[in-house]
Amino acid sequence: MATESYENFETTLDDGVLRAEIHGTSKMNALNDTMTEELLDLAVRLHEEPIRCFVLTGSDGVFCAGGDVETFGSDDAPSEMRKGASLLHDAIVQFHQAEVPVVVGVNGAAVGAGFSLGIFGDFVLASEASYFQFGYPGIGATGDGASTYFLPRVVGLRQAKRIALLNERIDPEEAVDLGLATEAVPDEEFEDRLGAVAARIAEGPTVALGRTQRLLTESTSRGIEAQLAAETDVIAETAKTDDFQEGVSAFAEKQSPEFEGR
């Protein structure tokens, strides 16, 4: 097990699973400048280290209550918002490009930027004490953190507009029904289920799994010809991996494959 030192996250790296638990220095795990920089660092690590699954979750019954609104009132707010959003977006892009499966465990309030982080994962687990809320209209702001990219893709355009317009709290069960979350579980089962999902994914052919998630996400932005061309390129590249060779060999020998994520 390995750890790195962050001001706003407690992290572990165990059996290929990098887990980042938000322990924000701002109230309600609000996203501040340092947290955003650390989030980008975590995303970059997915490119540089042998990480097979990334898990993002909150702490003490809070996921992330958005940006640190108390810092938004200065005359420099427009430039500071541009800088903060740009850094957050760099992190989101790095997570997406890393092709490492991302599991998000929403264990409390996921509002504003927290809403964005709450829905961008490949697998989103919600505890019964959690809720999702677009949040941005509450301070007269528009969405960032890829919320306007992922939201219509996971719930459909009409529902996305309703969620943004009404800005209502969405409980875990409705979040699953809408597609914001993959699964909802009771609080007492949350940690065990989060660990089990991450472990199950990390035991798989995670290069192929990560690339499949990226293909699925990008499919809604492409025509069929472009999507099929991308599938051709990605499956050919993935055939070069050790896991592909292991999978084919195990299939031929009628054995269970032992994937190593490479």
UniProtKB/TrEMBL annotation:
CDD domains: crotonase-like (cd06558). It comes from the Archaea. The keyword Isomerase applies. It comes from Halomarina salina. This is Enoyl-CoA hydratase/isomerase family protein. InterPro entries: ClpP/crotonase-like_dom_sf, ECH/Chromodomain_protein, Enoyl-CoA_hydra/iso, Enoyl-CoA_hydra_C. It is found in: Peroxisome. SUPFAM superfamilies: ClpP/crotonase. Keywords: Isomerase, Peroxisome. GO terms for molecular function: delta(3)-delta(2)-enoyl-CoA isomerase activity.
